[in-house]
Design goal:
Radius of gyration: 23 Å
Order of helices and strands: HHHHHHHHHHHHHHEHHHEHHHHEHE
Distance between the termini: 61 Å
Helix content: 55-70%
Number of helices: 22
Shape: globular
Strand content: under 5%
Strand order of the largest sheet: 1-2
């Protein structure tokens, strides 16, 4: 088993600070563009963010879990409401809304703070995972930066997609608030805790139990994170046991504890899903198909990583049964399983979410671990040229900066529009507060007609009015 060592967190913190600063560039543009006229809105990374922030604002305002911020309908005695994507995946929403309500800030302010905290924690989570597997903080620091910086490239998005299609530009996909950004660090914490469960003989029960709790939280956080987490666990278990590990009884126990926690969470989850709105199915565009999907960029990258591992094992540069090798292989193969599960289930649900938000990052984690293993050639004590790793990290950071800066004109234009729409919402809220006495108890949220669709989407995070 790998020897435990004290982690030097300064390298992870350094990487996290760099990634966070790059992530905040759009918000810096927002503040610079609006100046003293800024109305408190956040810089939009993706159009869906306004719908998420509307739901969070409803929770901040004290509305129940089952609410619709756009129609104004709430769960009331004698008036049950169906479950929605937001009410089922409630963990990140409450994680944001609870402290925001305590501090007295709006969902817009909370989303700005989320854009600072979550990228920082995401980088630290990946750093912790890579450090556990590679036992090298400097390489883990560079690897964490590489994984987050090249996420769009590994998804076929960003600059590459812009050159090919000229539209639908997306940079640093994991930054979309609050899905997947809020629970994104938790995914890699789950991976690290699973590593600890299989490789750390101390706290033999605590590690798998904490990993199981993480997976349970992911189940109530985001469908497109917990399903890949479960797929990765299946890949890992399969590879782990065919490698003929020695202490298989203890390892079976670790996997069993994690799965028991997952099943315990999936039972109430299934109950909530059974109570979902019928409109929800139509909106999610579930496809009945068993056709294989083999041409995603993340899949191709994962297969390339697996081929590198096989090459290293064949040339005896990598130990085939080493835990690090098994983990690298599991990350490389997970995208293949995620994009082709419909061959067994017969159902495919918007697979581009996997492509943008997690499969690309898993393939990159596998690439980083594999590269380090090939670099060392079985010898953990072999001197490493950290300058090369530093230069690769430097290139990765600049690639990310270029991707964020490329749509600067679009960011500025969108920032001006959304911030002005925020001012409209704030004015409506002021008018509503001044006319409280004239509002019927049967209609506590006056209806607003917004002829511009974008304005209609933006209004609820800034006012309690319903939108027609």
């Amino acid at each position: 088993m790998p020897q435990a060592h004290t982690i030097k967190w300064k390298w992870g913190i350094l990487a996290a600070v760099v990634v966070t600063l790059v992530s905040l560039i759009p918000q810096f543009f927002m503040w610079g563009t609006r100046g003293s006229q800024w109305n408190g809105s956040y810089a939009e990374q993706h159009g869906d963010e306004w719908v998420y922030s509307a739901y969070v604002q409803a929770l901040i305002d004290g509305r129940p879990r089952r609410n619709d911020p756009y129609t104004g309908r709430d769960e009331r005695p004698g008036q049950p409401q169906p479950e929605s994507l937001f009410s089922i995946q409630f963990v990140p929403a409450y994680l944001i809304a609870a402290p925001a309500r305590l501090l007295g800030v709006s969902s817009s302010t909370a989303f700005i703070l989320l854009g600072v905290i979550a990228p920082f924690l995401s980088c630290l989570a990946i750093f912790w995972l890579l450090t556990n597997v590679t036992q090298d903080e400097k390489l883990a620091s560079a690897g964490a930066v590489l994984v987050l910086s090249f996420g769009a490239l590994a998804a076929g998005q960003g600059l590459v997609h812009l050159f090919i299609s000229g539209s639908n530009y997306s940079f640093l996909p994991f930054l979309r608030r609050y899905e997947p950004l809020a629970p994104f660090p938790l995914f890699f914490v789950f991976c690290s805790l699973t590593w600890k469960s299989l490789n750390d003989r101390n706290n033999a029960l605590a590690w798998p139990l904490m990993a199981g709790v993480c997976l349970a939280l992911l189940i109530f956080s985001y469908f497109f994170l917990w399903t890949p987490a479960l797929a990765w666990l299946v890949c890992l278990a399969f590879l782990w046991f065919i490698s003929k590990r020695d202490d298989w009884r203890r390892e079976i126990r670790s996997f069993a504890i994690i799965l028991i926690c997952a099943v315990a969470a999936l039972i109430p989850y299934a109950i909530l899903v059974a109570r979902r709105s019928q409109i929800m199915d139509a909106g999610q565009k579930l496809i009945l198909s068993r056709a294989p999907d083999l041409i995603r960029v993340a899949e191709l990258l994962g297969l390339a990583v697996f081929a590198l591992l096989a090459f290293g094992v064949r040339r005896e540069r990598i130990a085939a049964r080493a835990p690090a090798t098994i983990f690298a292989a599991s990350f490389a193969l997970t995208p293949l399983l995620v994009f082709n599960q419909q061959i067994i289930t017969g159902r495919s649900l918007q697979p581009f979410h996997y492509e943008w938000f997690i499969a690309n990052y898993l393939a990159l984690v596998g690439l980083v671990i594999t590269s380090i293993l090939l670099w060392r050639r079985r010898d953990v004590t072999r001197p490493v040229r950290y300058r090369i790793a530093g230069r690769i990290a430097f290139i990765a950071v600049w690639w990310a900066v270029i991707e964020v800066m490329a749509p600067v004109k679009v960011v500025i234009r969108e920032s001006q529009f959304t911030d002005r729409a925020a001012a409209v919402g704030q004015r409506l809220k002021e008018l509503s507060a001044s006319e409280t006495g004239t509002i019927s108890e049967l209609d506590p949220r006056p209806l607003v007609l917004a002829t511009e669709n974008k304005v209609a989407v933006i209004l609820p995070p800034f006012t309690s009015h319903a939108v027609f």
